[in-house]
């Protein structure tokens, strides 16, 4: 018998492959600006590391503890190696946390809108979703989330910067929030886009883990590090919870390829820095563009911008015909566009301008 909770489930709709869409649309070129991937690729050090490793040990199971990468990241983030739990992308970590911490009837507090996978996995566990809408600037409403906490609350998801709004809350705001949240509630801060924050030097709340046992911080190699295809994400958690998560997760969830690629990517902070600076420049141009266009948009600190425009579906179709894929389906007349290479951004801005002019 299929679980009741699963019968009602709306599936996560993954990206189609670029080749598939090109064929469907008869396009020779397609630029995907719908998945918040890194338009600058990944560090050349990754290719070298993979070539050096070759297929040595392909017949052997990988290191279940991911010892090399664990040490590298523990040193980089100044946390204990035991505080890290690795996953097959953050996707797996989101599933793992839900599977481990949620029981049927538990309440899960979410920003509305936010990343859909939090609700997906909460639903599978039979938990109850409590949505707290963003404020008029698209910013996560921390006071609203605090007010939504009840004795049944099990976890709070804080995506920071938030996907799809791109907005972020400060380190200080999260510290004050944590001080008011009961110990029994786990607060998960998904920092998938934290590298792109330029408004504040120390935006990550990893340092707060020494103060709050009920805090979990998530990071991924899929965005600023440009490794989406290798599937590497991790949680930084209190050691007691780390131990429990380690027993629930699959034993060989990261291939050696993934580990080696992530280590090489992490060792090239110069690459990340360049990407982050270029994204910040281009993001600024996007925000200025939307301001000039006179449409509603949110002040992004991530590598994408969320905006509202009349006939958004028709616009997304028009852009697709011109070889640009943007994200639809996140809200009526809202579109999310990933910051791309400068020439692509310019072309798409011209197309949007022309489209809006004809309306
Ligand atoms: C992209 C994304 C993830 C998923 O990251 P993977 O490591 O590729 O699974 C997690 N959280 C948010 C908010 C994202 O946008």
From TrEMBL:
**Reaction(s) this enzyme catalyzes, per UniProt:** L-histidinol phosphate + 2-oxoglutarate = 3-(imidazol-4-yl)-2-oxopropyl phosphate + L-glutamate
Q: Which cofactor does it need?
A: pyridoxal 5'-phosphate
Q: Name one GO biological process term.
A: L-histidine biosynthetic process
What GO molecular function terms would the record report? histidinol-phosphate transaminase activity; pyridoxal phosphate binding
Pfam families given in the database record: Aminotran_1_2
Q: Which InterPro entries has this protein been placed in?
A: Aminotransferase_I/II_large (IPR004839), HisP_aminotrans (IPR005861), HistidinolP_aminotransfase (IPR050106), PyrdxlP-dep_Trfase (IPR015424), PyrdxlP-dep_Trfase_major (IPR015421), PyrdxlP-dep_Trfase_small (IPR015422)
Q: Which CDD domains match?
A: AAT_like
This enzyme's EC code(s) = 2.6.1.9
Give, as in the UniProt entry, the pathway in which the protein acts. Amino-acid biosynthesis; L-histidine biosynthesis; L-histidine from 5-phospho-alpha-D-ribose 1-diphosphate: step 7/9
Domain Aminotransferase class I/classII large residues, every copy: 29-346
N6-(pyridoxal phosphate)lysine occurs at 223
Q: Per UniProt, which keywords does this protein have?
A: Amino-acid biosynthesis, Aminotransferase, Histidine biosynthesis, Pyridoxal phosphate, Transferase
Describe its assembly.
Answer: Homodimer.
UniProt lists the family membership as follows: Belongs to the class-II pyridoxal-phosphate-dependent aminotransferase family. Histidinol-phosphate aminotransferase subfamily.
PANTHER family according to UniProt = HISTIDINOL-PHOSPHATE AMINOTRANSFERASE, HISTIDINOL-PHOSPHATE AMINOTRANSFERASE 2
Q: What is this protein called?
A: Histidinol-phosphate aminotransferase
